[in-house]
Fold these 3 entries.
Entry 1:
Amino acid sequence: MPKVNGKDPVLVVIQLTGGLDFMNTLIPYTEGIYYDSRPTVGIAREVMLPINDTLAFHPDAARLKELFEAGNVAVVQGIGYENSSRSHFRGMDIWHTCEPLKISTEGWVARLIRELDPQSRDPLTCISFGRGLPRALAGAGVTATSVGDLDNYGLMTSVQIKEERDSDLDLFKRMYTPAIGAGLVMDYLAQTGRDVLKGADRLKEAPPKYATSVEWGTNPIAKSLRDVARVHTAGLGTRIFYTQHAGYDYHSHEPLNHGRLLGELSGAISDFLQDLRNHDAADEVTILVFTDFGRRMVDNGSGTDHGSGGGAYIIGTQVNGGLYAEYPSVLRKDWLNDEDLRPTIDFRGIYGTVIEQWMGVDPGPIVGGHYEQVRPYRQLSPV
């Protein structure tokens, strides 16, 4: 297992729910077809933030661009998979389980938790901030702690904690029973929920220990990453944090919503890294940002519809920032389904990149094979 300055590597996952418009995040500003295809949602060239002769960040991603220029952001271009699903439920299910061709009962993060904590002894090995249990964390015999509000979690009674956990599991049951059947869901639920109280007393330690000079935002992703910072700097041994930022399904009113969300996300990530640096706790952390799918090339007069060929982001102080994989061709002859960007790298290879190169675990059993990886990390020292 690799070490970073003598510390175990930590993974922070940020799920952008709804389908981030990659083409309006990293914009091919020299391509006329971009402006022709997006008369409503296209970004004016004079306000873009160029990073080279062909690509520019959205103006509201200014703080993400600053991190990119500092060498801390690896942009994975054209991430996806063959025959990309345009369904939110099925699309996110595929990203959560790494199974594009069949329904799976286990999430990729759950498989990683099992490798890190085979006996499921520590309920804080993985913490999800936000209500509900993401499918990525679900696996038989795997314990992951879901925290809706860190400040209140440590003050809740054992009965209240169990009620919150039961509520999360009930939501999971209602969501996934139609897809994978009641039997499989109940088999999973019968083995989870245990050790739900063991982590509560330890989580009480985090808020009182935390002090910061960073002026955090008040939006949901800022609150979640602040909670990650509080737990991580408390040294509770958590190896995986899972967070979500919702609202990216902009079929309408995209210009306003896309800019607002990018501003929230960029600011929260920037504040998070600065906070960790201030606590001398940044080098052992990497962030993986992913989303359901990309959006279609041509706008619909108010927003963009579900597409493919999106982007992902690997962020941290140990990252060799830059552009990875290939930007999908914007030429009409190369469009998928005559309206989508064609993916250029499989998402399972990007999970594999983080799992193998950062966490030091064989990705094959976790993502269902070995796929092309990128090389975004500085050299880590062995144990």
Entry 2:
Amino acid sequence: MIRFRPKPLRYLIAAAQLVVLSLVAACATPAPAAEETVALRFAVLGDAEPKPLAEFPNMAAAVADVNALASRERIDFVVGVGDIAHKGTLLQYEAATPVLQALMLPFYPIMGNEEFNETEERFLEFANRWNEGKATFDSRRYVQDEGPVVMVYASPDFSRQFNDEGVAWVLEQVKAAAPKPVFLIVHGAQVGVYPENAEKGIENPAFAEVVAQPNLAAVISGDLHMDMDRVDHSKQIGEVHYLHIPALERTKIPDETRHTPMYRVFTVSEGGEATVDTYEVGNPAALERHAYSFDLPVAE
């Protein structure tokens, strides 16, 4: 028969005290906050248009980084803000093709002023070739309903400009999306948004009605080739958030003395918050100094 020797009273008291202290500590330590569920996440690649050679080393590195990121966490697709092919030449389109075909995700591009050196038909041919069936395009302008937001891809009508018909198309899409918030993808934002080159951008005054729509959450653009570390690249004007996408192969603003290739990743939570992370090519960690976030507009 096994017998248990009773513990002295002082041991029982000490044990009870330890239990109480453990319970107090557990109550005092807050439980880790639950992360909000990701409703949508996509990466955005900026201008490439390398010169003088049709070589895309930084775009290739960004594609590799996005693929690696997508293997670690959810990424739904990749956006392009235009100006991939310098002067729209066949040589540049052909050189960019194997680079973009390496993307594991669908790639949704628009035209920039460089592509308008050639035809819309050439752009559409290569946009489809870049995707190899992951996405298909029959127009330079299109809409993508992605659950929590509607993505409106608005290639310009010429250069980086919109004529009245083009503005009317964008306005119609934004209104039709309501009450859902809209992310508008354009090559260049309207003139004056970025004072670093305030005269460059959309000039049609009718575009003011587009940015006045209550469900327009953000305008995502490239074109200016700005150095993220030396400009004001993310801002709110009125009720709209403006997010610049830096160029991958060449920096122009404020000057050409320093080029750091970067890309950005947008995340929309189920709770209606949008966060924008910026990654330097080759660095798997987002750059805290360029973090930006905002709440999506709520339907009234």
Entry 3:
Amino acid sequence: MRAFSTLCVVSLQIGVFVATAIQPVVAQSLPFKGQIPKQSPLSPPVPSGQSPIKLPAPPPGTEVDKSGSEGSQLSRYILGPGDGIGVMVQHPPGRYILGPGDGISVVVQRFPDLSFQTQINPEGNITVPLLGTVSLKGLSLQQAQEKIRSGLNRYVVDPIMALSLVVQRPELNFQAQINPEGNILVPQVGAVSVQGLTLEEAQEKIRSSLSRILVAQDVVAVSLVGQRAVQITISGEVSRPGIYPVLSLNPRINDVLVSAGGSTNMADLRQVEVRRKLIDGSVVSQKIDLYTPLQHGGVIPSLRLQDGDALIVPRREIATDDNYDRKLVARSTLAVPQIRVRIINYASGGIVVVPLPNGSNFIDALTGVSLDTTNLSKIALIRFDPERGKAVTEKINGKKALEGDVSQNVPLQDNDVIVIGRNLIGKITNAISLITAPFYNVESFIRFFNIFNGGNTNGF
């Protein structure tokens, strides 16, 4: 009897060798196809002996959430209706782990009636002859083979069998747009709400919703592939305050400043404020310094704006104006590119509107003025003061400015009025002093000069 048992064991070992030689892919994991995904902070720990998991790189033009490393709520992108997200699910390298959708083949030698092919159902189970329902989800090919063999061993003495993977389940990759209710449609799951979540939070929620059909080692990566229409409110010291749509895929502060015509000469770009209302109704804000990068040739902060953000450009205080190079800002793309200066000349008898590059000085405005017939020593610069709602007059000696006196070559601002000629200066100054109500805005300030010119052209 002992000799017979020994002979059976030897026969089984030879049979296993023969089966292995005939079917070399039996109980082996399939090679990993495609790019190896990168380890995610939300993915499970890497099993011992396996390589670190790497998340797949998103398609070109997408942006992956980096809120965990930024540490600021304003640096996190908050998902909302209209956003498009991409979901990539990939299997890890190393031993192949079985899951719903995999097709396997089981061959039992000497018992063809026990051999079969089947697909693992959504619950992770298969039906095995004699055994009934057997769960294979989360098992390697070797583990699944041993589990079925152990079960059949109750009915067949030391069965010789081989399990192989014949159909690999497809990778669950899809794109979805968030509907007006804040939901996306996840295949095999249904509607999942992601409104108000960061990309990282949405990634964890989608993975949780897919847990029924994923194996523990599967990696889920979520990226932003399409952004909803963005409208930003901009106020303060800009040329045209208001609400602006931003068409850029990655809207930045400088994009909005350009849309609003750029910052004014009185803007303080050292403390531009961004405000954002969160899903819970709270408001967060952050001060952004745009001036220092201009001053030192650095990179403008790349805070990404989102729909509903408010951008506030503060007014520069006189006390903090000493180290602020207004001309440097005026020559940049963050400022109004062009200013308009009105010149009222006693000799020419009319008002001329002169467009000048932002950052121009008084001498630049004299380019089109006939200096031979102009009394350069009697020039007035009249400027609207929005804080006091009135016109402020500054006397300028144009002759000294042309001779190099920097104090007389004053920097100009948009809508400045230059008045040339002693008689005309007195006439306009007297007319302004007779106004009982202050100017309400720059439009009423300019309207005054247009009316004054229309009624007094012949008196120049």
